[in-house]
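Title: Comparing notes on inverse folding

I've been comparing how different people in this forum approach sequence design from structure. To keep things fair, I'm posting one structure and asking everyone to reply with a full sequence. Here's the target:
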């Protein structure tokens, strides 16, 4: 079976050009095998650049990989995920682990996650921060010539 390609060339001519001496269906199987799988990394590192190489931390610019120094932490401590405070600092640049006044380390006492409790706390804070008559009256538009009209 000979297929005619879009540019007028036959698949047997393609096979001759690339020195493939296989039947037509096998040619397409070989070509399909060259297409990478979806969501697969296209760059693979070997030797000292391999992900689990002992010397990768020594040769990469940011010291990625396993360092050759002895680590005194337990395996549970080494594989612990970042805390939410560390994530806030890394992503948004919000520093909540140090006190703004004295510079000491802040300890998280509680983490409130229930929406009903959060809403109750916010309502309470709003009622305390702005009593009924504490806001100034709303002002009108500016008077006089604005210069652009």
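Reply #1:
Here's my take.
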């Amino acid at each position: 079976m000979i297929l005619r390609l879009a540019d007028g060339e036959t698949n047997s001519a393609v096979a001759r050009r690339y020195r493939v001496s296989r039947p037509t269906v096998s040619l397409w199987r070989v070509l399909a095998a060259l297409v990478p799988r979806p969501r697969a990394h296209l760059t693979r590192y070997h030797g000292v650049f391999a992900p689990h190489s002992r010397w990768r931390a020594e040769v990469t610019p940011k010291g990625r990989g396993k360092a050759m120094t002895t680590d005194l932490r337990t395996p549970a401590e080494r594989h612990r995920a970042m805390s939410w405070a560390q994530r806030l600092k890394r992503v948004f640049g919000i520093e909540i682990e140090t006190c703004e006044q004295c510079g000491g380390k802040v300890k998280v006492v509680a983490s409130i996650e229930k929406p009903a409790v959060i809403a109750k706390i916010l309502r309470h804070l709003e009622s305390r921060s702005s009593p009924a008559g504490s806001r100034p009256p709303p002002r009108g538009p500016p008077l006089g010539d604005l210069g652009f009209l």
